[in-house]
């Protein structure tokens, strides 16, 4: 039997106090909505429809082609949203799963078990529930002899019902052949003048149909309405990601201090130290050691590389390369096998060849460095003339002296050397020494003359 998915994502999320639609807020590298859609794919749905409203175009624009959207305008509650979603389904007669778009902790396994439970019981509707130590504010699940008798909102619960700690998560499975008629029958007889999806449950019970419930771990029932809740679910998701990596063979000194997004790939055998932030499309090779204090966004770190105390954005670090401490790799930085970028070095839009080193206090921008070359401390490729960027090329086995300024565009040939303190404005041929320094001049007695002048000026 086919499964159709409806995700309710039309709300503004006023308690987030943000201009952004609630479901677009990101947590652990994905939007709230994307986490829900990712979990729902485990159901292999014939069709998935997202009901959008606030910032509809922006929300729909984040979805893949396999998901369609429909606008709920005006917004008259969850029952109305489900009705709008059903109207977008090509065949709304199968099993329909309804999920709020702000529940990123729900898993594909839980949804699969929910649908299986629904079919095993032969119910017309099944509610996903959780058991909470403090159920205040949630709709209580009132069970009867044959299943769920009702869902009672907290404000309407009697003292006896308030002690019930099994609550509604707003995740449902319905038989589509009956859901459409049930949605038509509910009314907005409440203080909000809205159509509530929970009223469908009451409709089915009154009509004599069986409504079942399946309880799942409490964390899966957490919806996000505030930034505090966003932080709470982020903590859970990061723990799940780290646990999966640990089980795959990744070593972490302290997983609670490692922050890895869902899109990151870390190969078994990698070692991750505290205060590491891996985001975007970052990949970490086996045998590499990353951290402490590393931020890598959409970077590629090869096998057996070592990266310490560094900030890296869209950079490639080759196998056996060394980065840090206190290095900054900007977009387009490429370190080939065995290269080294050391302390207080910034690399942007440049390639550092295999076995080459930029060990200390240097800036390399818009440059290509060959193999087995050493860049002395304090070297700068002066790549910007105030109007345009220019390239510097440095060959193989070159020795760039400390405190060299390379005024681009300029080429330093293979096996060449530059003298320390030089300003290189012309190409240096292969094997040549490029040096540009004024002869040193010493002025005897300068310190004494300076002292006397200062005394005279001070009176």
Search tags:
459 residues, alpha/beta, Spore Coat Polysaccharide Biosynthesis Protein SpsA, Chain A, UDP N-Acetylglucosamine Acyltransferase, domain 1, 9-stranded parallel β-sheet, 7-stranded mixed β-sheet, 21% helix, elongated
Topology of this protein?
Layout: E1 3-9, E2 26-27, E3 30-31, H1 32-40, E4 47-52, H2 56-61, E5 67-71, H3 78-86, E6 95-100, H4 108-121, E7 125-131, E8 140-143, E9 148-152, H5 159-162, E10 166-175, H6 176-185, H7 198-206, E11 211-215, H8 227-248, E12 251-252, E13 258-260, E14 265-266, E15 271-272, E16 276-279, E17 283-284, E18 289-290, E19 294-297, E20 300-301, E21 306-307, E22 310-313, E23 316-317, E24 322-323, E25 327-329, E26 334-335, E27 340-343, E28 345-348, E29 351-352, E30 357-360, E31 363-365, E32 367-369, E33 374-375, E34 380-382, E35 392-394, E36 399-400, E37 405-407, E38 410-412, E39 417-418, E40 423-424, E41 433-434, H9 446-458
Parallel strand pairs: 1-4, 1-6, 4-5, 7-11, 12-15, 13-16, 14-17, 15-18, 16-19, 17-20, 18-21, 19-22, 20-23, 21-24, 22-25, 23-26, 24-27, 25-28, 26-29, 27-30, 28-31, 29-32, 32-35, 33-36, 34-37, 35-38, 36-39, 37-40, 39-41
Antiparallel strand pairs: 2-3, 6-10, 7-10, 8-9
